[in-house]
Amino acid sequence: MKRIERLSVYRRFLREIAGQEPSSVYSHELAEKTGTTPAQVRRDLMEIGFAGHTKKGYGISELIAAIGDYLDSPDGDPVALVGLGNLGRALLPFFADHHPKLKIVAAFDSDPRKAGRVICGCRCYPAAELEEVIRREKIRVAILTVPAAAARKAAERLTAAGVRGILNFAPALIRLPKAVTVETMDITIALEKIAFFARRSPDEG
Amino acid sequence: MKRIERLSVYRRFLREIAGQEPSSVYSHELAEKTGTTPAQVRRDLMEIGFAGHTKKGYGISELIAAIGDYLDSPDGDPVALVGLGNLGRALLPFFADHHPKLKIVAAFDSDPRKAGRVICGCRCYPAAELEEVIRREKIRVAILTVPAAAARKAAERLTAAGVRGILNFAPALIRLPKAVTVETMDITIALEKIAFFARRSPDEG
DNA sequence: GCTTGTGAATCTCTTCACAGCG
DNA sequence: CGCTGTGAAGAGATTCACAAGC
User: Using a CB cutoff of 8 Å and minimum separation of 24, what contacts does B118-125 make?
Assistant: First the structure.
């Protein structure tokens, strides 16, 4: 659901301005800074049961906490990264520092020479140990950056080992039981779409 | 619009099976292989004005051509890559070989030591030459892989130089005239969303 | 005047269901 | 039959618009 994404975006902005004065924001400010509309902001916050104050808006620190209660697992979620090619290695630093709740705790690659290394604080394992490590670390979220031909099987192994959400970068259709959330980020398709709209766009506008 | 993405997906699958027998597919086969429904496939093809044959389905090579006519620029689109950090460098090989119509022809980075190099067949320029190269090469599509703090300004410079579509990987809101298509692929937000749904998913399903 | 909260209207996208055809 | 093409219905998401409160 798109609401979940917007809540993440709201929170990112709120964290930037937390601690400053004033200590609250209006729906129109939040909308302006996150690329949506005031009505949408109010509807989203209503939906998660967060109430503002007439005339004062929404308390910033309270709202950050409320979005956290709604979105986050209390103890954070350990994440697996499967596939240490160019893209996989590029993604590691994204989560090495930044994210308080999502931490990549294990990486896997079919190339056994990568096993045992530690990249950006993340331990690398051979693909054969995938199920064992996923179970041991109770990992339920995975990022898939293997080649398209290997994506389906990797996704099935992850699911069998207990993973319930997969962020897939491989240009491949992954069909899993609907209890597993799969989101595919297909760079080629996104670029084709953008090129399509760019082409029908006026030269000056 | 989502239809554009689905057309890309259809085409990718059709190319895989092109040249094999039979030379046509049914809407239910195409739907099955691309993760949608037969009615959706028929609606999408209707929308681009492609007609099938009752009982025989849709001619594969004709459909590939029709989708190409609809989606692609006849001569292909030159693409710029802005930001040669980990992610930017990881994306170059994606388009170096594969794509017949989208080719990264120029890369930019604020680090002048990267200028002049050629990575994956793509020439690197200093950031200062951005406008000049974009105009010279008539680039209208760009991939943005700079840090979040630099994203907005880079996007504005690209737009001023003639770019009309941006695939943005920076976790930043980019606001541009609506004639410019911006698609943000925000990995952190995608992962937060997946973790959210994974958490409410049953352990066995 | 300014806000928020929200029912109702609207817009967009998807699916149904069936006529028409081979 | 089993298929496509499509009007009509349905489902979801967004926006409108206004009551209520400061």
Answer: B119/B84, B119/B89, B119/B92, B120/B92, B120/B93, B120/B96, B121/B96, B122/B81, B122/B92, B122/B96, B124/B84
